[in-house]
Each structure stands twice: as C-alpha cells, then as structure tokens.
Amino acid sequence: MTARELVVLGTASQVPTRQRNHNGYLLRWDGEGLLFDPGEGTQRQMSFAGVSAASITRICLTHFHGDHCLGLPGVLARLNLDQVTHPVDICFPAAGREFYCRLRDVVPYFAGVREQPVAAAGPIPLPDTAFEFEAIRLDHRVETFGYRLIEPDGRRILPDRLAAFGISGPDVGRLQREGSLRLPDDRVVTLDEVSTVRHGQRFAFVMDTRMCSGVEELAQHADMLVIEATFLDTDAGLAHEYGHLTAAQAAQVAQAAGVRTLVLTHFSQRYADLEDHRLEAAKYFDGELVVAEDLMRVPVPTRR
Amino acid sequence: MTARELVVLGTASQVPTRQRNHNGYLLRWDGEGLLFDPGEGTQRQMSFAGVSAASITRICLTHFHGDHCLGLPGVLARLNLDQVTHPVDICFPAAGREFYCRLRDVVPYFAGVREQPVAAAGPIPLPDTAFEFEAIRLDHRVETFGYRLIEPDGRRILPDRLAAFGISGPDVGRLQREGSLRLPDDRVVTLDEVSTVRHGQRFAFVMDTRMCSGVEELAQHADMLVIEATFLDTDAGLAHEYGHLTAAQAAQVAQAAGVRTLVLTHFSQRYADLEDHRLEAAKYFDGELVVAEDLMRVPVPTRR
Fold first, then answer.
1. Residue B266, phi-psi category: left (phi > 0), alpha (psi -120 to 50), beta (remainder)
2. Do the chains contact at A16 and B44, CB–CB below 8 Å?
3. Is the separation of the CB atoms in A274 and A24 below 8 Å?
4. Can you list the alpha helix ranges (DSSP code H) found in A157-245?
5. Which of B135, B141, B150, B146 is nearest to B62 (CA)?
6. Is the Cβ–Cβ distance between A138 and A214 less than 8 Å?
7. CB of A9 closer than 8 Å to CB of A55
8. pLDDT tens sequence across A179-214
9. Is the minimum CB–CB distance between B83 and chain A shorter than 8 Å?
10. What does the entry list as the binding residues for Zn(2+) 2 (chains A, B) (predicted)?
11. Who is most buried in A48, B66, B191, B275, counting CB within 10 A?
C-alpha cells in the first residue's frame, strides 16, 4: 500500500511563534496530496518537510481567516514556477469567494486550478478520486467548512478460501473484476464467498469551530481526525467566545465518534508548553493521541 | 545616538530555501522602523529577529512580485492584532495599486494605514520624518521603484571654538536654535563659526532591476546600500533577461558611487554557497562588504 500519512507543516493559530508556523497540513493519500489550510509560510515549510509543489493534487480551505489561507498565493506561485502540469482542485467556502479571488490574483495565474466553491454541506464531486470527499458546516465567526475523506469499503481476498475452491492464477483477478467466477465443475463462486469486507479508511479535518453537530459528524469513525484544540478547558469561555474548541472538547468528541488517531493542533500562542493539552485530552480519549508539532509525520493507522 | 541598523529578515529571491526566507528588511533609524519588501513569512521572521509590529512606522514596496510583497497581509494583520495605534505609511508603485488592494483586503483593515502610492520618481512627502525620502525608478519586468533616505546635513559643535568665544551653559543651546548669539561685548557669533558640517546619513534600497541610471542615482554617497545581487557574472545573460543584477554589477556601482557599507542580498536559489558572490564583489568594491544572511543585523556606519 502506498503511504498514507499526515505531514504537519504548521500548528499555530493566529500568531506564529519560533516553534510553530501558521497552519498547514498535507495529507498524502496513495498518489494524492491534499493540502489543508495553507497559512503564511507554508511554501517554506514544504521545503523543510521535503514536500514538493508537484505532490499537491487538491487544496482545501476551511475558511478565510489569515492563519488558514495566507499561504495560498505562495503555493499557487510555486505550482506555476515548478511547471506543475496536473490540475489542482481548490475547495473553499463559496461565501468567501472574494477573498479567494484576491489571494489567487496577487500571483501569476496557475492554469491547473479547478475551483470547487462549497456553498452547502454535502459531497464534493472531485474528479478522478478513489475516495468520496465531503464538506460539513462548522460554527465559527465566518462561514467555515470541515472536510472528510471516505474511502469506499472494498473486499479483502482470503487465500485459504481461494485454495478451498481451487482458484488460482489469472482466475483470481477475473473473480475480483467480475464479482463471480464459473469453476470447471460449473459451480459459480462469488467474490463474497472468498473475501471479507475491507473497511475504507476515513480522514477528517476540523478547523475552526465551536462544538457543534458538524464536528460530531465529521469525526464519526475517522481513522484519523485532525482537529483544532486552540484552548484548554480553563479557557473554555474564550474558546466559545472566539469560536474555538478546547483540548477536552476535541478529545471527548473523538472518543464518542470512535476515532483511532487524534491529532490536536492550532494552538494559541498563550500556551508555551502543550503538555497540559496532552494531559487534558488523555483524560477523555484512549486512542492514539498526537499533539502536533511542526514537520511531524503521522501515519494514518493501518486498516481496521 | 539611537541605533541605526538593518535587520535582515529574509534574503531569498523567488523561492525560499531552508537557509533563506523570502525578502524582508527592517531599517531601524532612530525612532523609526522602515520595513522594505516584506515577502511571505516576514511576520514569523520578525519573531525570530525580535522585531515587534509596533516598531514598524513605514512599509516600502519596490514592486509587486510575490517574493517582495506576499508578507504584507500578515504584517497588516499583526499591526491590527497588536493594536498598534500609530500610523504606518505604505509606499508602493501606483501602477500596482490593484495588487496592493488585494493584499490589503484579505485581512482585517488596519486603520493606521496611510497609503503613499508612488506614481513618479521624486521625493515622497512622508509626514513626521526627520529625513527626506525619495523614490527612483528602476528597470525590472514590472514597474519598480528603489528608495533612498537622506538625512539633511546638520552642524557639529566644536567645543574648543565655543571655549575660545567664552560660550557655555544655556547660550550653547540658544546659539544652536537661533543660528547666532550676541556676546556680552556685542560681538555676534554665528553657528558656522563654532561648528562644522555634520553630513547627513544616506540609506538606499535597490531591488529588482537591470543596471540603469536609477541604480547609480540611488547608490550615490550611500552610507549603506542594500542591493539585489541575484546572479553571478557567469549568469549575466540570465540577469539581464530577467531584469536583475550580478554581484559584480552591484559592487561596481557601489564603488563608483562612494558607498560605505554594501549589503548584497536577494540571491537565486541556484547558488548553494555565496562565497563566490563575496569574491566577485570584493574584486570591485573596497568598502565594508556584507553578503546578507537571514536574521543578520548590520549597523549603519557611524557618520563620516
């Protein structure tokens, strides 16, 4: 299987620090590279992380606050400069289209752009994908969408079942392609008889929002959930006021939703140390917990 | 005297590298902070360099290529966030006003902005300055202006001359303010008789351009010249084609103009090592030569 991993390019909300660049997350997913919320400096963080512009196939913006989008022009400029020839879909809230246009139009036009303005929650029909992609509305101070990627369920061939039916060689591929196979004795074997369900993977990206049903929906059964945890519960009032989550809220929703790998990020500069975020989240979440650091790579957990 | 120094925030042209952020230069000049050509990531470089948004009093853009301006929104956002109350003049080529507006309008409006679009070469009447500020047209692929700061000449009091006239105490200040002083014996002493010329300092900023008369004019008698040296002379053809200078050209013009401290910057990523830039420039320039590195501080040389 080709690598599926999250490359963390930046983890700061609002103000970058010496340790943390503004947001930026590349999800490598087989041959795809989905860049989420490129904040200012993403282009350079890509250099540090060894991410080429050519590896980007989609760009997804949750909303148009600067720490989530000011890196877009630099990325578009780089796609141009590196003469990337494949198309790049750009998903963004349609309500912020004027901001998108300003960001797009401060650099030379990258001809590969395919704009995918998101006007309402629901599936986004991205071309040429092996997964479903969906936007779900969140609750921030401006129109904000979270995204999730859902790989359809597949079938996993069981070698012992194949052997029991005496199926081998090119017949295996034929059975997988056609769904059934007629044996020499005229019995028909279906794919279901020699395979089991291989659950598709799910990845969800939740940024910036108060707790709301959209967060819960996005998190549902996510193998990996990348979620903002701007504040600690001691600052829950601020979190609510500014439309953000606390580490405890993020962990609780992840636990309830059956998340496997939880990646907390988008930290307020007010916290010099993030050990408290880890401790607070660990109280509620018992899966794989990652407090994101810039340039970290987090593998999507292998299939269930 | 308050510090006058250049804080180098970034030194890369076009593409940032691990060692070099995109352009960005803060000139600290007594109580002023002039930010030149903030490329993407300038906001974070300011953190690394210990430069606060509040220390910025003017922002000067030479032209609207991304590596010279994509950091502007982040800086404006930061001026807002840090609740800076003083006005900030922003000089930029008037021909690129649409780009300026896009960059300004992707972030919340900073009320302190005083726009100073530059339509033609000549003095820019900046309010509240103790220096003259001037734009001079350069020769790049889009409308580009270089800038220079000229401190008017002053007078330096000569203590032995004061003593010879028997002038002391409050009379010294009166003579400086009024230009002349009547002595007890009715003789009138002029300021010129007890002082000598104190030459004003000059700072020039030259970015991106082919060699042209504007470069020569800007460099004239500069105490500090910050100038692009994108290429080496072996790539002089490329330099001319793309509207840039070589290290040799920058050094030659600096030498002819009587520059004291020459700061080379804006290097192409094609050169992994800049020792050749230093050697090439040193062949032609015998003053203080600085090959800029990110986060370097270069003092403006003390007055002649």
1. left
2. yes
3. no
4. 159-165, 170-178, 213-219, 236-242
5. B146
6. yes
7. no
8. 999 999 999 999 999 999 999 999 999 999 999 999
9. no
10. 67-68, 208, 266
11. B66
Tell if the CB–CB gap between A71 and B15 is shorter than 8 Å.
no
**Chain B residues inside the 8 Å CB shell of A81:** 14-15
Region A4-153+199-299: CATH code: 3.60.15.10
Q: Which pair of tokens denotes residue A6?
A: 């999250």
What's the start-to-end Cα distance of chain B, in Å? 14
Annotation marks residue B192 as catalytic: no
Q: Which chain A residue is nearest to residue B104, measuring alpha carbons?
A: A102
Within an 8 Å CB–CB cutoff, is residue A302 touching chain B? no
Q: How far, in Å, are A5, A179, A302, B80, B160 from residue A2 at the CA level?
A: 10, 25, 11, 45, 83
- Asked if the C-beta of A68 comes within 8 angstroms of chain B's C-beta atoms, the answer is no
Q: What is the pTM of this model?
A: 0.93
Q: Residues of A with CB below 8 A from B84's CB?
A: none
For residues B245 and A171, give the distance between their C-alpha atoms in angstroms, rounded to a whole number. Answer: 67
Distance of CA A235 to the CA centre of its chain: 27
**B133, B105 contact by CB (below 8 A):** no
Closest to A158 measured CA to CA, from A198, A122, A118: A198
- State both tokens at B199: 């030459």
Domain with CATH 3.60.15.10 in chain A: 4-153+199-299
Residues from chain A that touch B106, judged by Cβ atoms under 8 A, are: 64, 66, 69-70, 99, 102-103
Q: Return the structure tokens found at A246.
A: 């606390």
Tell me the two tokens of residue B289. Answer: 């030569």
* B76 part of contact set with chain A, CB < 8 Å: no
Round to whole Å and give the CA distance between B91 and B112. Answer: 14
Amino acid identity for residue B25 in this structure: Y
**Contact with chain A for residue B21, Cβ under 8 A:** yes
Q: What is the mean pLDDT of each run of 10 residues along chain A (304 residues)?
A: 86 95 97 97 97 97 98 97 97 98 94 96 93 97 97 92 93 92 93 93 97 98 98 97 98 98 97 96 98 98 84
The ipTM is 0.91
Q: CA-to-CA distance for B80 and A69, rounded, in angstroms?
A: 17
Which residue, chain included where needed, has tokens 């010879």?
A: B164
H-run or E-run covering B174 = helix B170-178
Cβ separation B69–A105 shorter than 8 A: no
In this prediction, what percent of chain B has a pLDDT beyond 90? 95
The strand pair at A88-93 and B195-198 is best described as: unpaired
Question: Chain A window 181-220: which residues touch B at a Cβ cutoff of 8 Å?
Answer: none
Question: How near does any CA of chain A get to the CA of B10, in Å?
Answer: 12
| Contact in structure between B240 and B275 (CB atoms under 8 Å) | no
